[in-house]
Amino acid sequence: MSELDLTQADAKCSTDSASVRLMKKWLEIGEGDIKVVALKGIQTDVVEMWAQAMRDKGVKILGKQEQGDRVVYLVHLP
Which residue in 32, 48, 62, 68 has the fewest CB atoms around it within 10 Å? Predict the structure, then answer.
């Protein structure tokens, strides 16, 4: 399973932001499930908002597990 670690992503709106990294990874791997690691707070908000915005495309959060200051998501990409 592919993994995307957002913990080093830029928190600002840039080409290294969490949402841009999510889109790039989707384009890179195509359909399948991916593990996404995000810091609690803004990054988890971004992951959840991105998944909600892409829901009509078939993106789903299949699981969510808190691990200290991080949250690990299992996300389905269509």
Answer: 68
